[in-house]
Amino acid sequence: MKLGKLNYIYNLDKHHAANKGYYRALVYDAVEGKYENLMITDGEMKKIRARANKNPEDTAVASWLDRIIATIRLF
User: Fold this and answer.
1) Quick check: is 59 in a domain?
2) What is the predicted pLDDT for the residue at 74?
3) Which backbone phi and psi does 44 adopt, to 5 degrees?
4) SS3 call for 9
5) Which among 3, 9, 10, 30 could disulfide-bond with 66, CB atoms 3.0 to 4.6 Å apart, if both were Cys?
């Protein structure tokens, strides 16, 4: 399964210099063999998306199972 869920978390009680929110994902690192929490700012997300758009040959494609799960919203 290649499909994951990316959540946007709003900073409700934020410092005046803090971002309005951040993206959060729990992923499994197959190399290290452990789960890892990723916290990504809006600026970092723009860079990540630009890199993926620039290198489409390196991106993952959702499998038929991923599409079914996303359609019935089990994930």
Assistant:
1) yes
2) 58
3) -65, -35
4) strand
5) 3
Domain count, the chain: 1
The Cα–Cα gap between 40 and 24 comes to 6
pTM equals: 0.70
Q: Is residue 1 part of a domain?
A: no
Tokens encoding 67: 């599409």
Query: Could you give the CA distance from residue 37 to residue 7 in angstroms, rounded to a whole number?
Result: 12
Could you give phi then psi for residue 45, rounded to 5 degrees? Answer: -65, -40
Name the nearest CA neighbour of 5 among 65, 71, 70, 72.
70
Per-residue confidence band for 44, with pLDDT thresholds at 50, 70 and 90: very high
User: Which of these, 71, 62, 19, 12, lies nearest to 41 by C-alpha position?
Assistant: 19
Q: Which domain holds residue 66?
A: 7-72
Inter-residue contact 55 to 36 (CB < 8 Å): no
